[in-house]
Each structure stands twice: as C-alpha cells, then as structure tokens.
Amino acid sequence: MIGNATGLGERRLVAIGICEILAGIALWFTGVRMNRDVDRRLLDPKTGQEVVVRRRHTLFWIPMQYWAPVLALIGLIVLFNGIRQ
Length: 85
Description:
- This protein is of the alpha+beta class.
- It has one domain (2-84).
- 53% of the residues lie in helices and 14% in strands.
- The chain has helices at 2-6, 12-34, 68-84, and strands at residues 40-43, 50-53, 58-59, 62-63.
- A hairpin with a 2-residue loop joins strand 3 (58-59) and strand 4 (62-63).
C-alpha cells in the first residue's frame, strides 16, 4: 500500500535502505559537530573552584556519531533485502 502511494511499488525497500544509509552519513557529521571538545571553564564564586562544562549529545549514553554506523548497517540490510526481492 505504501509503495503504491509513493509510486515506488516493490522497490520501496531499496529506497528506504538508501535513505537510511544517507541518514547515517548525515548523523555522523552532525554528531561529530555537536560533540566537539569545546569546554567551558567557569569559576564558582562561592568556592573559587573551577568547573568544566562539556557538551555531550547522546542517545542512551552513546555519543550521537556512534549511532551512525548502526543506522547505516540497518540501511544496508534493508537495501540488500530490497534488492533480493
């Protein structure tokens, strides 16, 4: 039904697989950019101690860029299953 609505027919798995691979590539670069090592050093006025604030963008405690190979692998599996059909 979805394949007929999009005009892809039986090759919708190929299109989904390609899109997942491209999303994995985009996620890698986005995750690397979001998790750059740009630390902010702040001074606590009460104690005089230095506090380091780091940017961490994670999903289930795993940095975002490391989800990219997982997404690309799922895309490859879907792509090859679509080609086999």
